[in-house]
Amino acid sequence: MSTPRIRMPASAKAGEPIEIRTLIDHPMETGLRQQGGQTVPRKMIVRFEALADGELLFAADFRNGTSANPYLAFIARFEKTTALTFVWREEDGREYRATQRISVS
Amino acid sequence: MSAILIDRRLAIGGLLGFVALSGAAASEAIPAEVAAAIREKVGAAEASEGGITLKVPETAENGAFVPVTVTVHSAMRSEDRCTAIHLFATRNPTPGVASYQLGAGLARAEVSARIRLAEGQVLLAYARMADGSVRRAAARVAVSTGGCLT
Predict the structure, then answer these.
(1) Which of A39, A60, B84, B103 is the most exposed place for a label (fewest CB within 10 A)?
(2) Cα A44 from Cα B25, distance rounded (Å)
(3) Domain extents for chain A?
(4) DSSP 8-state secondary structure symbol assigned to residue A37
(5) A38 in contact with B at a CB cutoff of 8 Å?
């Protein structure tokens, strides 16, 4: 549960546009849904951050309209070999992390 | 439950009046609650049409997973840089979908995501540029099976 997945190339040329695709298994419960006459408790990832060598590359603030298992794709460029960190944060502060490295020539 | 929420929201919109959107897919009125959510995230700056593309299917089979791509025409350099994209649903129980913050390391101002739509409606995308200007795009999506409360 809540396993993050990152799809991106392991290497790239300097400045080349690179697509980064991210996905995490998560129900993204809004607290509005009913099941068997009961309200399913709210459980939401509210923030996603992609950091490149510690600098913010891309972030998302999720609200109710974001699907379960939130998927995001964005296009970055790197001038040098970079360490990437991906963080998903639930409303109560719980975090899920993934790391990736891209070799730039 | 959803019907009650939507009816109440439309009633509020009816009382407070609607903000009219100009442009093709968005000649439709924005309910007051949605307009308030937009003001909170985007600010009061006047949005211009053009320079932004909102790609969604004309008909979404499953409202729980609707693919969406927002592309802002920007070289992502200096003044022309897009710094944020905001998505709003005009007929969901809550209008907020997501806000995306775009760092200087991005090659393009393009974000793909999957969103929930409770019923067929107009989706709105706003882009904030580094010079403070705001761009807007709208698209109508038909939904076969609603996605928010299922």
Answers:
(1) A39
(2) 31
(3) 4-31+41-104
(4) T
(5) no
Helix, strand or coil for residue B116? coil
What would the mean pLDDT of B131-148 be, rounded to a whole number?
A: 92
Contact A58, A51 (CB under 8 A): no
Q: In what order do the strands lie in the sheet with A71-76?
A: A4-7, A18-24, A71-76, B106-115, B66-72, B52-55
Cβ-defined contact of B98 to A60 (cutoff 8 Å): yes
CATH topology for the A4-31+41-104 domain = Immunoglobulin-like (2.60.40)
> For chain A, how many residues are written?
105
Chain B partners within 8 Å of A67 (Cβ): 64-66, 113-116, 147
Q: Is the distance from CB of A19 to CB of A91 less than 8 angstroms?
A: no
Closest residue in B to A18 (Cα) is B107
User: What phi, psi does A71 have (nearest 5°)?
Assistant: -110, 140
Domains of chain B: 2-145 (2.60.40.2470)
The residue type of B4 is I
Helices B32-42, B2-16: axis angle to 10 degrees equals 80
Q: What is the pLDDT of residue B5?
A: 46
Residues of A with Cβ-Cβ distance to B100 under 8 angstroms: 58-61, 74
The per-residue pLDDT for range B37-87, each reduced to its tens digit, is 999 999 988 899 999 999 999 999 999 999 999 999 998 988 789 999 999
Prediction ipTM score: 0.95
- Average pLDDT per 10 consecutive residues for chain A, totaling 105 residues: 90 97 96 89 96 98 96 98 98 96 97
